[in-house]
UniProtKB/TrEMBL annotation:
Name this protein carries in UniProt: SDR family NAD(P)-dependent oxidoreductase
Family assignment from sequence similarity: Belongs to the short-chain dehydrogenases/reductases (SDR) family.
Record PROSITE patterns: ADH_SHORT
Residues annotated as domain Ketoreductase: 7-189
Annotated source species: Rhodococcus sovatensis
Listed Pfam families: adh_short_C2 (PF13561)
Keyword list, A-Z: NAD, Oxidoreductase
Length: 263
């Protein structure tokens, strides 16, 4: 039902994790995918995301980009727009660092905002500039977090940055709704990626217990929602954030879910 043939998608941070699943999913739906990451284009082992997509019969290329550098962003997006146009942007690249405010240095704060907030802004502006010029509408999907919709103890910078992404999504979502550019976001819960490999078994168990369906997400489950928001099926959704979190934001269990249900 979702056919993105003829569309070009830029996926930031697509060399691994959620971004890789997003890139392969959009490509499987027919899109040409440009993976813009600070590492993917450097891979020479045949295992870059674009190599994987191409081997599966899709159309993809990897571009080296630090999204925190607005000049690089404008140059890369200008080049992609000239060659293919830009129909879809997925702002997925992000970084995580822990710390209360007293544990957060100036440098750590600036670095988390530079990627998650500034980078999202630079890429969104560059893509929307071309979407407006082309006059065909478009899709922007921001990968925020449950940490942008409620507090997450010990993650001051990350929660503030993801919160900024969430309201940025809403704002841009209404500004460009009249032009047929849908700007929406997903808020993943806990997802099995390199980013969350920092958690040891006891923390993982505690987080599972706090999640109503008792599970972490597979990156593919986030990608499936991004695919929906990148498609014509989401044409009437503007500035919305969809949580993909096993029910975590809706209600954290105070007793294990299974015993609550059987009681
Ligand atoms: N994993 C989770 O549980 C989880 C939960 C909620 C939200 N998220 C968000 O999902 C997104 C992807 O997370 P992930 O778990 O796949 O992370 P990851 O660390 O596995 O992958 C992040 C990717 O972003 C790229 N990247 C980082 N900084 C960049 C920059 N300045 N320029 C270009 N590329 C850059 C990295 O090279 C990497 O490929 C992030 O925005 C993250 O905050 C993740």
């Amino acid at each position: 039902m979702i056919d993105l043939t003829g569309k070009t998608a830029v996926v930031t941070g697509g060399s691994r994790g959620i971004g890789r699943a997003v890139a392969t999913t959009l490509a499987a739906a027919g899109a040409r995918v440009v993976i813009a990451d600070r590492s993917d284009a450097l891979r020479t082992d045949g295992a870059s995301t674009s190599d994987v997509i191409t081997a599966a019969g899709g159309i993809a290329e990897s571009v080296l980009l630090d999204i925190a550098d607005s000049q690089q962003v404008d140059a890369v997006f200008g080049d992609v727009a000239t060659r293919f146009g830009i129909d879809i942007l997925v702002n997925n690249a992000g970084v995580l660092s822990a710390g209360t405010v007293l544990e957060t240095s100036d440098e750590a704060w600036r670095s988390i905002f530079a990627v998650n907030v500034d980078g999202t802004f630079f890429c969104t502006r560059a893509a929307i500039r071309h979407m407006v010029d082309a006059g065909k509408g478009g899709k922007v999907v921001n990968v925020a977090s449950i940490s942008g919709l409620r507090a997450n103890p010990g993650f001051a910078g990350y929660c503030a940055a993801k919160g900024a992404m969430v309201n940025f999504t809403r704002q841009v979502g209404i500004d460009y709704a009249p032009l047929g550019i849908n700007v929406n976001g997903v808020a993943p819960g806990f997802v099995e990626t390199d980013m969350t490999a920092i958690y040891d078994a006891s923390i993982r168990g505690a987080l599972e217990a706090q999640t109503p369906n008792g599970k972490w997400a597979d990156p593919q489950q986030i990608a499936d929602t991004v695919l929906f928001l990148s498609s014509q099926l989401s044409n009437h959704i503007c500035g919305e954030i969809i949580a993909v979190d096993g029910g975590w934001l809706v209600g954290t269990p105070v007793v294990p879910v299974a015993s609550a249900v059987s009681a």
